[in-house]
Write a structure and sequence with these properties.
alpha+beta; three-stranded antiparallel sheet; 13 strands; binds 2-acetamido-2-deoxy-beta-D-glucopyranose
Length: about 190
């Protein structure tokens, strides 16, 4: 009976180790976030070094479209997707440049590296393309106190949604001031 218990405990322990391993493998895929603006350019820089003797590198968009294939034995890469062909440029250091960005280019870019033993490693890039932020203006509101001193509030006005605000005074970041208005305590 005790022996059986011990066996059961051992099995359980092994299962825990196994599932930990699987979790480790699942998180092994490197992911980065990249932001771009419409008509702008971004660079997807792989963080994991590519083995010198790699067999083939494949880039995919949203896991549905193959957009670039680079075989080590061929000097030029191929661009199987018509839409992406004119927007991409591949560098020797494996950086992928995407230019003339459009909103629809937002999504996941997967770099799949096949090494000489046909082992595959993946790296993911989440690209988000935003409208450029128009130049903001600042509205200054002054209230005169009875003692003759003034209270001043600055309001940042920008024709865009989904923005975050940061305030700087003489190039110094006013850390934590993240709303559209800044009260006079800082002036
Ligand atoms: C690779 O080269 C490109 C173009 O010269 C450069 O912009 C990029 O930062 C380089 N990437 C890395 C990871 O050094
Ligand atoms: C790519 O994937 C993103 C996020 O899943 C989605 O919002 C977008 O519509 C997809 N783009 C295309 C062109 O399939
Ligand atoms: C500037 O602030 C004043 C006072 O709060 C307000 O009446 C005015 O509409 C603001 N101007 C703009 C462009 O928001
Ligand atoms: C000016 O600011 C002080 C301190 O925040 C406040 O007590 C006072 O009521 C303000 N005066 C006006 C006219 O807003
Ligand atoms: C703004 O800063 C406050 C604390 O200073 C924080 O609690 C809040 O989450 C921040 N809001 C945004 C949108 O970053």
């Amino acid at each position: 009976m005790l022996g059986k218990m011990a066996a059961a405990v051992t099995t359980f322990a092994c299962l825990v180790v196994l599932s930990n391993l699987q979790a480790y493998e699942a998180t092994e895929v490197l992911r980065s976030r990249v932001n771009g603006i419409v008509h702008g350019t971004v660079y997807l820089n792989p963080k994991r070094p590519v083995p010198k003797e790699y067999k083939q590198i494949t880039w995919r968009f949203n896991d549905t479209q193959k957009i670039l294939i680079k075989k080590r034995t061929q000097t030029t890469e191929s661009y199987p997707n018509d839409y992406f062909r004119s927007k991409l440029r591949y560098y020797k250091n494996h950086t992928l440049e995407i230019k003339q960005l459009e909103k629809q280019d937002s999504g996941t870019y997967r770099m799949q590296v096949e090494d000489s033993q046909s082992q595959e490693t993946n790296e993911l890039f989440q690209l988000d393309v935003y409208d450029p932020i128009p130049k903001p203006s600042v509205n200054i509101t002054t209230r005169v106190n009875e003692d003759g001193w003034c209270n001043v509030t600055l309001e940042c006005i920008v024709a865009a949604t989904q923005v975050t605000y940061r305030w700087y005074r003489d190039e110094k970041d006013l850390v934590g001031e993240n709303s559209s208005t800044l009260d006079q305590g800082w002036l």
